[in-house]
Amino acid sequence: MLVTNLAHANGNDYLNQRFAKAYAFLAQDGLEALPLGRNEIDGDDVFANVQEYDTVAAADKQMEAHRGYYDVQFVVSGQELLQYAQLDGLAECQPFDEENDFGLYEAPKECTDVVLHAGDLAVLAPEDAHKPGCALGSEPCHVRKIVVKVRA
Predict the structure, then answer these.
(1) pLDDT digits (tens, 9 = 90+) for 6-62
(2) Do the Cβ atoms of 147 and 48 come closer than 8 Å?
(3) Where are the strands (E) in 55-120, listed by range?
(4) What pTM did the predictor assign?
(5) What are the beta bridge partners of residue 134?
(6) Which is it for strands 79-86 and 103-105: parallel, antiparallel or unpaired?
(7) Is residue 14 within 8 Å of 21, Cβ to Cβ?
(8) Helix, strand, or coil (residue 16)
């Protein structure tokens, strides 16, 4: 699934060599046993952040975005709701952190909801604000996720 504004379509090559490395990493066996934190793939061009957390209500979170990397968000176990919207026009909640390539933004009134189950992934471009880790319904779910960072 690729959802983007036509103005951004030609600028995103989701099949280039860096993405191929990300997809190959996610296709390997043993993802459940990877250590939490950063796992190397190809230096700073492609690397994986392994996370575990309990989902929370979407209303309790802000949108996030990155300038230097795409996110390939892959759910190893559990399920979550991921919301996203075009970054353009969203108000910053705090100054963008260039060193960590991370910014927080106010959520728009309408977001697109994507449900991710174990084995599902979503690829988010720098122009996509996103809110991962949201609960489906009222009950939290424990999630193990790998976010592969692919240099833009």
Answers:
(1) 788 888 899 899 999 999 999 999 999 999 999 999 999 999 999 999 999 999 999
(2) yes
(3) 63-65, 69-77, 79-86, 103-105, 112-117
(4) 0.95
(5) 56, 81
(6) unpaired
(7) no
(8) coil
